[in-house]
UniProtKB/TrEMBL annotation:
TM helices/strands, residue ranges: 12-29, 64-82, 94-117, 137-157, 169-188, 194-215
Stated name of the protein: DUF4386 domain-containing protein
Domain of life, per lineage: Bacteria
This protein's record includes keyword Mitochondrion: no
Keyword Transmembrane helix attributed: yes
UniProt keyword list: Membrane, Transmembrane, Transmembrane helix
UniProt xrefs under InterPro entries: DUF4386
Length: 225
Protein backbone atom coordinates (compact mmCIF):
# COMPACT_ATOMS: atom_id res chain seq x y z
CA UNK A 1 0.00 0.00 0.00
CA UNK A 2 1.23 3.51 -0.82
CA UNK A 3 0.06 6.15 1.62
CA UNK A 4 0.53 9.91 1.68
CA UNK A 5 0.90 11.15 5.28
CA UNK A 6 -1.45 13.92 6.34
CA UNK A 7 1.58 16.11 7.09
CA UNK A 8 2.66 15.80 3.44
CA UNK A 9 -0.72 16.96 2.21
CA UNK A 10 -0.59 19.90 4.60
CA UNK A 11 2.78 20.79 3.12
CA UNK A 12 1.26 20.69 -0.37
CA UNK A 13 -1.64 22.92 0.68
CA UNK A 14 0.63 25.44 2.40
CA UNK A 15 2.76 25.61 -0.75
CA UNK A 16 -0.41 26.09 -2.80
CA UNK A 17 -1.56 28.93 -0.56
CA UNK A 18 1.79 30.69 -0.92
CA UNK A 19 1.66 30.17 -4.68
CA UNK A 20 -1.84 31.67 -4.78
CA UNK A 21 -0.61 34.78 -2.95
CA UNK A 22 2.34 35.06 -5.35
CA UNK A 23 0.15 34.81 -8.46
CA UNK A 24 -2.45 37.26 -7.14
CA UNK A 25 0.12 39.86 -6.04
CA UNK A 26 2.21 39.57 -9.20
CA UNK A 27 -0.65 39.82 -11.68
CA UNK A 28 -2.38 42.62 -9.79
CA UNK A 29 0.77 44.74 -9.45
CA UNK A 30 1.78 44.35 -13.07
CA UNK A 31 -1.52 44.33 -14.94
CA UNK A 32 -3.71 46.52 -12.74
CA UNK A 33 -1.19 49.12 -11.57
CA UNK A 34 2.13 49.45 -13.39
CA UNK A 35 1.06 48.89 -16.98
CA UNK A 36 -1.81 51.43 -16.78
CA UNK A 37 0.58 53.96 -15.22
CA UNK A 38 3.20 53.44 -17.93
CA UNK A 39 0.57 53.80 -20.66
CA UNK A 40 -0.66 57.09 -19.15
CA UNK A 41 0.48 60.50 -20.38
CA UNK A 42 3.51 62.15 -18.78
CA UNK A 43 1.29 64.62 -16.93
CA UNK A 44 -0.94 61.87 -15.55
CA UNK A 45 2.05 59.79 -14.50
CA UNK A 46 3.71 62.79 -12.84
CA UNK A 47 0.51 63.64 -10.96
CA UNK A 48 0.08 60.13 -9.60
CA UNK A 49 3.70 59.89 -8.48
CA UNK A 50 3.74 63.41 -7.02
CA UNK A 51 0.62 62.66 -4.99
CA UNK A 52 2.27 59.50 -3.66
CA UNK A 53 -0.45 57.36 -5.18
CA UNK A 54 -1.57 54.92 -2.47
CA UNK A 55 -2.34 52.20 -5.02
CA UNK A 56 1.17 52.48 -6.45
CA UNK A 57 2.69 52.11 -2.97
CA UNK A 58 0.40 49.15 -2.35
CA UNK A 59 1.64 47.53 -5.57
CA UNK A 60 5.24 47.84 -4.35
CA UNK A 61 4.20 46.23 -1.06
CA UNK A 62 2.45 43.45 -2.99
CA UNK A 63 5.64 42.80 -4.97
CA UNK A 64 7.62 42.62 -1.74
CA UNK A 65 5.10 40.17 -0.28
CA UNK A 66 5.36 38.14 -3.49
CA UNK A 67 9.15 37.90 -3.12
CA UNK A 68 8.90 36.92 0.54
CA UNK A 69 6.34 34.21 -0.21
CA UNK A 70 8.51 32.96 -3.07
CA UNK A 71 11.41 32.37 -0.69
CA UNK A 72 9.18 30.29 1.59
CA UNK A 73 7.67 28.47 -1.41
CA UNK A 74 11.13 27.61 -2.72
CA UNK A 75 11.91 25.79 0.54
CA UNK A 76 8.56 23.97 0.59
CA UNK A 77 8.91 22.83 -3.02
CA UNK A 78 12.39 21.54 -2.23
CA UNK A 79 10.92 19.46 0.61
CA UNK A 80 8.17 18.14 -1.70
CA UNK A 81 10.26 17.46 -4.80
CA UNK A 82 13.73 16.53 -3.50
CA UNK A 83 12.88 12.80 -3.13
CA UNK A 84 12.57 12.69 -6.94
CA UNK A 85 16.05 14.19 -7.45
CA UNK A 86 17.92 16.10 -4.70
CA UNK A 87 20.40 17.79 -7.03
CA UNK A 88 17.77 19.00 -9.52
CA UNK A 89 15.56 20.12 -6.63
CA UNK A 90 18.48 22.09 -5.17
CA UNK A 91 19.06 23.75 -8.55
CA UNK A 92 15.37 24.63 -8.82
CA UNK A 93 15.47 26.15 -5.34
CA UNK A 94 18.65 28.11 -6.00
CA UNK A 95 17.36 29.59 -9.27
CA UNK A 96 14.05 30.50 -7.62
CA UNK A 97 15.82 32.20 -4.70
CA UNK A 98 17.97 34.25 -7.06
CA UNK A 99 14.83 35.39 -8.88
CA UNK A 100 13.31 36.44 -5.55
CA UNK A 101 16.45 38.42 -4.71
CA UNK A 102 16.36 40.16 -8.11
CA UNK A 103 12.69 41.08 -7.67
CA UNK A 104 13.35 42.48 -4.19
CA UNK A 105 16.34 44.57 -5.28
CA UNK A 106 14.52 45.68 -8.43
CA UNK A 107 11.81 47.36 -6.33
CA UNK A 108 14.25 50.20 -5.71
CA UNK A 109 13.66 51.44 -9.26
CA UNK A 110 9.90 52.20 -9.06
CA UNK A 111 10.41 53.50 -5.53
CA UNK A 112 13.13 55.81 -6.87
CA UNK A 113 10.65 57.08 -9.49
CA UNK A 114 8.14 57.83 -6.73
CA UNK A 115 10.78 59.52 -4.55
CA UNK A 116 12.08 61.58 -7.48
CA UNK A 117 8.71 63.10 -8.35
CA UNK A 118 7.81 63.80 -4.74
CA UNK A 119 11.08 65.55 -3.91
CA UNK A 120 11.36 67.39 -7.25
CA UNK A 121 7.90 67.84 -8.81
CA UNK A 122 9.38 70.08 -11.47
CA UNK A 123 11.88 67.45 -12.52
CA UNK A 124 11.64 65.63 -15.85
CA UNK A 125 8.96 62.96 -15.68
CA UNK A 126 10.88 61.12 -18.40
CA UNK A 127 13.43 60.09 -15.77
CA UNK A 128 10.71 58.62 -13.57
CA UNK A 129 9.22 56.81 -16.55
CA UNK A 130 12.64 55.44 -17.49
CA UNK A 131 13.13 54.12 -13.96
CA UNK A 132 9.78 52.33 -14.14
CA UNK A 133 10.62 50.89 -17.55
CA UNK A 134 13.97 49.68 -16.23
CA UNK A 135 12.04 47.95 -13.45
CA UNK A 136 10.25 45.97 -16.16
CA UNK A 137 13.58 45.00 -17.69
CA UNK A 138 14.92 43.96 -14.30
CA UNK A 139 11.79 41.88 -13.75
CA UNK A 140 12.40 40.08 -17.03
CA UNK A 141 16.02 39.43 -16.07
CA UNK A 142 14.77 37.82 -12.88
CA UNK A 143 12.43 35.66 -14.97
CA UNK A 144 15.46 34.08 -16.66
CA UNK A 145 16.39 32.50 -13.32
CA UNK A 146 12.76 31.58 -12.73
CA UNK A 147 12.61 30.00 -16.17
CA UNK A 148 15.51 27.71 -15.30
CA UNK A 149 13.82 26.92 -12.00
CA UNK A 150 10.64 25.98 -13.89
CA UNK A 151 12.57 23.64 -16.20
CA UNK A 152 14.01 21.83 -13.18
CA UNK A 153 10.68 21.85 -11.34
CA UNK A 154 8.83 20.54 -14.38
CA UNK A 155 11.23 17.62 -14.69
CA UNK A 156 10.73 16.73 -11.02
CA UNK A 157 6.95 17.17 -11.12
CA UNK A 158 6.68 14.88 -14.16
CA UNK A 159 8.42 12.14 -12.18
CA UNK A 160 6.55 12.67 -8.89
CA UNK A 161 3.72 10.22 -8.08
CA UNK A 162 1.62 12.99 -6.51
CA UNK A 163 1.48 14.98 -9.76
CA UNK A 164 0.28 14.32 -13.28
CA UNK A 165 3.00 14.04 -15.92
CA UNK A 166 1.27 16.64 -18.12
CA UNK A 167 1.61 19.18 -15.29
CA UNK A 168 5.38 18.78 -15.27
CA UNK A 169 5.50 19.25 -19.04
CA UNK A 170 3.35 22.37 -18.75
CA UNK A 171 5.61 23.86 -16.05
CA UNK A 172 8.69 23.16 -18.20
CA UNK A 173 6.96 24.85 -21.15
CA UNK A 174 6.35 27.90 -18.94
CA UNK A 175 10.07 27.94 -18.13
CA UNK A 176 10.89 27.97 -21.84
CA UNK A 177 8.50 30.91 -22.33
CA UNK A 178 10.16 32.88 -19.53
CA UNK A 179 13.62 32.24 -20.95
CA UNK A 180 12.52 33.25 -24.45
CA UNK A 181 10.87 36.39 -23.09
CA UNK A 182 14.04 37.46 -21.30
CA UNK A 183 16.16 36.76 -24.38
CA UNK A 184 13.86 38.90 -26.52
CA UNK A 185 13.85 41.73 -23.98
CA UNK A 186 17.66 41.84 -24.08
CA UNK A 187 18.38 40.95 -27.72
CA UNK A 188 15.31 42.08 -29.67
CA UNK A 189 13.13 44.32 -27.47
CA UNK A 190 11.02 45.36 -30.46
CA UNK A 191 9.62 41.80 -30.54
CA UNK A 192 8.69 41.66 -26.85
CA UNK A 193 5.18 43.00 -27.32
CA UNK A 194 4.38 40.50 -30.07
CA UNK A 195 5.63 37.71 -27.79
CA UNK A 196 3.38 38.76 -24.88
CA UNK A 197 0.51 36.31 -25.66
CA UNK A 198 2.93 33.42 -25.06
CA UNK A 199 2.88 34.27 -21.36
CA UNK A 200 -0.62 32.79 -21.26
CA UNK A 201 1.14 29.41 -21.23
CA UNK A 202 2.96 30.46 -18.05
CA UNK A 203 -0.22 31.75 -16.41
CA UNK A 204 -2.04 28.47 -17.15
CA UNK A 205 0.92 26.39 -15.96
CA UNK A 206 1.45 28.22 -12.70
CA UNK A 207 -2.27 28.41 -11.93
CA UNK A 208 -2.63 24.68 -12.57
CA UNK A 209 0.36 23.92 -10.34
CA UNK A 210 -1.07 26.17 -7.62
CA UNK A 211 -4.47 24.46 -7.72
CA UNK A 212 -2.89 21.00 -7.72
CA UNK A 213 -0.94 21.92 -4.59
CA UNK A 214 -4.01 23.43 -2.92
CA UNK A 215 -5.96 20.17 -3.22
CA UNK A 216 -3.06 18.27 -1.68
CA UNK A 217 -1.74 16.51 -4.74
CA UNK A 218 -2.95 13.31 -6.35
CA UNK A 219 -4.70 10.87 -4.05
CA UNK A 220 -2.56 8.01 -2.88
CA UNK A 221 -2.86 4.92 -5.02
CA UNK A 222 -2.81 1.36 -3.74
CA UNK A 223 -0.58 -1.26 -5.30
CA UNK A 224 -0.24 -4.93 -4.50
CA UNK A 225 3.17 -6.18 -3.59
Amino acid sequence: MIHTPTADRRLFRLAGLLYLIIIACGLWSELAVRQPMLSATDDALADRLFEGDAIFRLSLTADLLMALCDVALAVLLFAILSPRGPLIAALATAFRLVQSAVIGANLLLPYAALHLMQTDPAGPVSVARTLMELHGTGYDIGLAFFGLSCLCTGWLVARHPMFARWLGILIAAAGAVYLAGTALRLLAPSLSLAFSPAYLVSIVAETSFCLWLLVGGRKARSTSS
